[in-house]
């Protein structure tokens, strides 16, 4: 059977590039389960053949919607080899800059902050790990994740890759909610990886610096030297690994 990957945040940025990359691998014949609030843009729709892809509109912050996503994908393709838990958003609340605005409205106290960033960037990833582990563990005995361009093999049931950020390693004063969530993902990865390895699943995180995506705050790319950005080609590991998803470590970020 061809290998199957599930990608959240698949309609833009890193998720879209990953989906296109996997479909472009000539020998692997990847089949994809794509999740996002909106389908891939029309300009890229021809890149996603209906016989190899399934798009499910999903708010990843909803356990019920994520569970339905995994169910639909498994029902369609019958297996899950690789899960890229990639969906993310930037901050939805600004503690200090909101004080003056709230005072000017004569409020007796601050409004309850939005925690949507944590729901999407952290809670949803935990949901995704739980669901991916469940469906990867349903692989038939003796079967392992596809090798070569299909993911590395080696008796592994499945591979989970979490999109963290360099903001998961360093402070990011302009986006504290995003930074806190991405730090938590690094800790989550390091903590889950040993137990996951014991059941034949790898859990790793990537921590890119600034990548040219729609998530980058206005003005950031102009202020960030090009040589300090993370190219999308590096995210896909094309040059070093010749198009193959690299073998991942027992645990690591």
From TrEMBL:
PROSITE patterns for the chain: ADH_SHORT (PS00061)
Source organism of the structure: Viridothelium virens
InterPro entries: NAD(P)-bd_dom_sf, Sc_DH/Rdtase_CS, SDR_fam
Keyword Oxidoreductase set for record: yes
Name of the featured protein: NAD(P)-binding protein
Pfam families: adh_short
Family to which this protein belongs: Belongs to the short-chain dehydrogenases/reductases (SDR) family.
TM spans (from-to): none
GO cellular-component term (any): cytoplasm
Keywords, alphabetical: NADP, Oxidoreductase
Gene Ontology molecular function: oxidoreductase activity, acting on the CH-OH group of donors, NAD or NADP as acceptor
Lineage of origin: Eukaryota, Fungi, Dikarya, Ascomycota, Pezizomycotina
Keyword Transport: no
């Amino acid at each position: 059977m061809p290998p199957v990957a599930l990608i959240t945040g698949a309609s833009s940025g890193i998720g879209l590039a990953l989906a296109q990359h996997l479909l472009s691998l000539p020998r692997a014949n990847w089949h994809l389960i794509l999740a996002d609030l909106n389908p891939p843009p029309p300009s890229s729709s021809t890149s996603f053949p209906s016989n190899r892809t399934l798009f499910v509109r999903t708010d990843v912050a909803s356990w019920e919607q994520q569970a339905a996503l995994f169910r639909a994908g498994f029902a369609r393709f019958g297996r899950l080899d690789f899960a890229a838990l990639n969906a993310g958003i930037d901050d939805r609340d600004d503690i200090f800059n909101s004080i003056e605005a709230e005072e000017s409205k004569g409020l007796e106290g601050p409004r309850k902050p939005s925690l949507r960033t944590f729901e999407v960037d952290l809670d949803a990833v935990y949901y995704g790990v739980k669901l991916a582990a469940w469906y990867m563990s349903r692989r038939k005995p003796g079967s392992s994740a596809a090798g070569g361009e299909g993911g590395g093999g080696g008796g592994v049931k499945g591979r989970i890759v979490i999109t963290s950020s360099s903001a998961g390693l360093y402070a990011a004063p302009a986006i504290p909610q995003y930074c806190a969530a991405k730090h938590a993902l690094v800790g989550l990865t390091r903590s889950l990886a040993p137990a996951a390895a014991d059941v034949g699943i790898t859990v790793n995180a990537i921590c890119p610096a600034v990548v040219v995506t729609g998530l980058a705050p206005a003005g950031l790319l102009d202020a960030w030297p090009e040589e300090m950005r993370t190219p999308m080609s590096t995210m896909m590991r094309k040059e070093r690994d010749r198009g193959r998803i690299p073998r991942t470590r027992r645990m690591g970020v």
